[in-house]
Amino acid sequence: MSPTRVVVLALSSSLVLGACGPEPTWNDLTSRQLYAGWRSLSREEAVARCDSVSNRELGRGEVLYAVASGGSPDSMNVLPLMVGTRQGFRFTDTQEVKFLTELRRVDSGEPIRIHARPFFETTGPDRCYWSASALKSDSLPAILTSGSITSFRDPGPDDNATLRRLRPSCVFQGDYPPAEQPPCSRPTLFAVSDLDSDGLDEFWFTVPMLWNTGFQVAELRPDQSDLVMIASACLGCD
Fold first, then answer.
1. Burial 189-224, CB ≥16 within 10 A → b, else e
2. Could you tell me which of 17, 31, 8, 10 has the C-alpha nearest to residue 228?
3. Model's pTM, two decimal places?
4. Which helix (H) or strand (E) holds 32?
5. Helix/strand/coil (H, E, C) string of 108-169?
6. Strands 227-233 and 127-135
7. Number of domains, the chain
8. 191 lies in which domain range?
9. How far apart are CA 190 and CA 215, in angstroms?
10. Contact 103/89 with Cβ under 8 angstroms?
11. Of the candidates 149, 172, 191, which is a domain's last residue?
């Protein structure tokens, strides 16, 4: 059985920002708000409630960065990763995507029309989240941005060698008989950036796991001894 290769936002505290700016003001969608009078809501009711209270738009100068991958045969999932600010980066509670109808691919500048939708997570603290969908692209995953496309470049041989040195794991994905097991999968570097203009490269790469392929953004330390995670997205990862 082949592994799932849909990249979906990790709904946990695993999103860690290395250069986190001031926290914005947004609705705290806690269970007390979603369960009025502690009455249990159906998923349909909860999603409708999410739609009614989600109102966090991007602020002036803020840029949403997302990754697109997987989905159905004719569409792809678009998951918010982080928000770039004048101070660096900040967490995204994913509500920002509700107010966007278009993102752009960082590799080609191609505009991608998106359709945002809420979903309701119940495996941890009950909260609303937002994702989006778009028509399937020929090349996935794709890195998308809501703002002008700057500070991104294609990775070169030295970049790939650095990623291989710092993330050397090679994972056998899926449940196959030994004779049919495909070769192991290594992290793949899709882009390099310096979005916060601090002179340190940010690597955008896949993270293969047994049943999933995640995605990370990590900043290279000045001495190139490690990659410090800025944002992470993955389906079914703890």
1. bbbbbbbbeeeebbbbbbbbbeebbbbbbbbbeeee
2. 17
3. 0.76
4. helix 31-34
5. CCCEEECEEEEEEECCCCCEEEEEEEEECCCCCCEEEECCCCCCEECCCHHHHHHHHHHCCC
6. unpaired
7. 2
8. 150-238
9. 10
10. no
11. 149
3-state secondary structure of 44: helix
| Residue type (1 letter), 95 | Q
Q: Is the peptide bond between 24 and the residue preceding it cis, with omega within 30 degrees of 0?
A: no
Q: Are residues 109 and 74 in the same domain?
A: yes
Sign of CA pseudo-dihedral 210, 211, 212, 213: positive
Type of residue numbered 9:
L
Half-sphere exposure of 68 (CA within 13 A, CB side): 30
Are residues 155 and 134 part of one domain?
Answer: no
Q: At 67, phi and psi to the nearest 5?
A: -125, 145
- From first to last of the 238 residues of the chain, give the pLDDT tens digit: 544 333 333 333 333 333 434 443 433 333 334 434 445 667 677 667 677 766 678 888 899 999 887 767 788 888 888 999 888 888 887 888 888 999 999 988 889 899 887 765 544 445 667 778 888 766 667 899 998 887 899 999 999 999 999 999 999 998 899 889 999 999 999 999 999 889 999 999 999 988 878 889 999 999 999 999 998 876 555 4
CA distances from 13 to 128, 193, 235, 238 (A): 15, 24, 14, 9
